[in-house]
Amino acid sequence: MPQGFLVESQRDTVAVSTAAGLRLHLRRATLTDLEAANHLHRWECSAESRRARYHASRDRIRHAEWRHLIDPDRGYTFLIACPQWPGPIGLAHLLWQHCGPPEIALLIADKWQGRGVGTAVARHLAGLAAAHGHPVQQARIRSGNDRAIRLANRFHAIIDDAV
Questions:
Q1: Which terminus of the chain, N or C, has less C-beta within 10 A?
Q2: pLDDT recorded at residue 11
Q3: Which residues have C-beta within 8 Å of that of residue 78, sequence separation ≥ 6?
């Protein structure tokens, strides 16, 4: 695991908690976090989890894509961390769209799924979107991804299944 990914600036880090009290840190991703993000993809997320997020079983993010995802003019990308774990446990995106509501997207490491991480992070992203004047968000989710659909429905997100 790449060292130093948790070096954080208080200004760019937000603490959130799951319903069960698990504390998480969301840190705004930077260009230097690409290696940690790709480690998460390759070693912490199954092909099934990656397929659910990207609609393909990709095991990495290319440099140009990462630059796009972390561009502050395009939205927010956070690394999700748990203080008891050495590397990122997920990625979260709130991306502004040219037309329509912003998109919320999550990738949670397999061993952290089902612990309320997605719900806690989505709650934060929905609040962040609302603070920017977007009370409604969208999520691109394939039909059949029941967990993601339930999560999106909790936050009244528009589900785009045309992917």
A1: C
A2: 61
A3: 14, 26, 27, 28, 29, 91, 92, 93, 121
